Amino acid sequence: MIISLVLGTVVSAITLYLAFRNVPFADLVAYLGTINYLWMIPATLVILISFMLRAVRWQIILRSARRVGFWEAHNPMMIGFMMNCVLPGRVGELARPILLRKQSKVPFTTGLATVAAERVFDLIMLIALFAFVLATVPIDPELNMTFGNYQLNRDTLEMIATGMLRICFVFIIGIILVTIDYTRSLIQKTILRIPQLLSFGSVAVKQKIHDRLAVPLANVTDNIASGFSLVRYPKSIALIGMLSLIIWLLAAFSYYIIALGCPGVDLSYPELTAVMVIVAFFIALPSVPGFWGLWEAGGVFAMTLFGVPGKEAAGFTLANHALQMLPVILVGFAAAIVTGVNILQVTRSGDLPDPGDRDPFPGRTAPVKRDELKARS
Hints:
Layout: H1 2-20, H2 25-32, H3 40-62, H4 70-86, H5 92-104, H6 108-136, E1 145-147, E2 150-152, H7 154-179, H8 181-197, H9 203-228, H10 234-260, H11 269-282, H12 294-305, H13 310-339, H14 343-346, H15 370-376
Antiparallel strand pairs: 1-2
Helix pairs in contact: 1-12, 2-13, 3-4, 3-6, 3-10, 3-13, 4-5, 4-13, 5-6, 6-7, 6-9, 6-10, 6-11, 7-9, 8-9, 10-11, 11-12, 12-13
């Protein structure tokens, strides 16, 4: 976590400097004073609604492993997002399945797989929205913005989107393979035979590696398959896809509402959707908690593409960033208080479960028992 914090701090400091180096601090402060903050009230409501829909979406994804109530999904999710805002290393992504395991007895690896599935849907939706924006919103192909040693322009954005699409495609193929019984069985057999291929160690050592490492790891594939088994249900995928679209459209709408109170930011809803997508691409990189620096760099760059002056772009981006974070932090802390969660304790490695934990609620893709795994090997 310390390494992540140091790396993130360096990246954030550099990006903050590059984003605001051409904006006089006094002018930025003066501009922030001209914003009509009453528009923040409806924007906050839209943000909270979008996160409630995220909880509903996670409920649907979790059905393949374990049916949970709305608050069972909502509270761990909001605590996880809050932790991403205040702690380094995106520990909130791990905290969600840890809390879900403690609260609803869903195996850690299954919960982690459902979080990963969420991210895949988000990435697909962001790429789809970005493709729509590139096709419909005019972006000057000759416009270049110098950012450190990089030249950022339309071609740069297309390259980033293409890279994201390739990563997403590889991830989807992996999900499909692990959810197919035949290929999952081959993966498990391969894992179980690895100890026998080792040239060192006695028979007893190899057996210990087999029992204590290979068998738990092989069992993890079943938990992961349980988390990803929704791919077998087209109706669920369609519903999750629709919810994902609504979630991101609402997020873009919150940007639009905030812009209504920001003088000099006269961008359309599609243009602000493009700003949101570009910010999302930027904050995928490591940064300090809350994505400070990278968020501002992405926002200023995106708004420059649409002709917004530096002072206005910087002021809007700062105000928007703060508003997007604040409700998440407050609701996350409230959820932690209600559920009695010790946030710092969750981040300790001792709270991570044994990878061999099996699902106490076996369903369509119930984990294979250890005896059965031994038989396969």
